[in-house]
Structure formats: structure tokens, C-alpha cells
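I am still getting used to C-alpha cells and would like to learn alongside you. To get us started, please write out a protein record for me. Once you have written the record down, we can walk along the chain together.
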Amino acid sequence: MSQKTEQSAYNQLSPKRQRFVDEYVVDFNGTQAAIRAGYAPKAANEQAARLLANASVKAAVEERRKSIRKKSINHRGWLLRKTKLIIEKCTGPNWNPQGANGAVRNMIDILGLKTEKHEFSGPNGTPIQIDYDYSRLTAEELRQLIELATKAGAKK
């Protein structure tokens, strides 16, 4: 009974092409990847285009992308588990609000939940005028809008 093992697309490539694939998945810049892989800088752009058009190289790039994605997901899970442990320790008998707060901020960053607030203004710092057709709002939506505007005005 013979066992047939399939080689990955990456392993079927020459060492120089493997190096190109490794460099390409770093920043997805074909020209720079070709140069870093040892191809002549003057012909790197054309060589990268030829390599990326090659079916074997395309398959190897996709294999590498999937591998990197999987490792990234595994690493993210590990970070979340460690952050959760820190939060549990900091909120337990050895109360440490600064540690818990830092861990929560870390978890928010890992999960991509961090929001940034940006304020935009028009020429010379004037407010940007936004035209909106309020006639399309329902009565409930208008009531909520008025309530929000009232609260915003009261805070100033």
C-alpha cells in the first residue's frame, strides 16, 4: 500500500520563487518583492508581473495568505484569553482597577472596537453645512431627532 502525498504549491516552486512568494506576502508589492528575492532591480517590475501571472506562484501566494490569516486568528485568540485572565485577576480579591482598565482597553484594540472621533470643519473653521431632507423621517424619528438636539443644546 503506497501513500501518495501531495506537495503544496509553495514546495513545488524553485527556492528563488519561494523567496519571491515569502517577500510578496509581506507587503503585496510585487516589484519590491522581486528585488528582495534577488531579481534584477531594472527588470523587477516585469519579473513580478510574470511571476504573479504564473498559476503555481498564484497558488503558493494564496497558500501563504491563508497560513498567515490562520496564525493571526490563533494569535488573536491567545491575546484575548490572556487579557480575560488579567481582567479576572484585577477584578478579583486583589482589586486593581488600573490593571483591569488597561486590559479592557487592550481587548477593545484586539477586537477592533476602538473608535476614533474626528471633527471636521469647513473653510476658515466654519461648520460644514449638511442638507438633509427631513420630510422623509417618520414621526417617531423626528421626535427622537428633536430629543437628541435638545440634549445636545443643553450640554453646551
Remarks:
- The chain has a mean pLDDT of 79.
- The first helix runs from residue 15 to 27.
- Residues 34 and 44 are 5 Å apart (CA to CA).
- DSSP finds six helices and no strands in the chain.
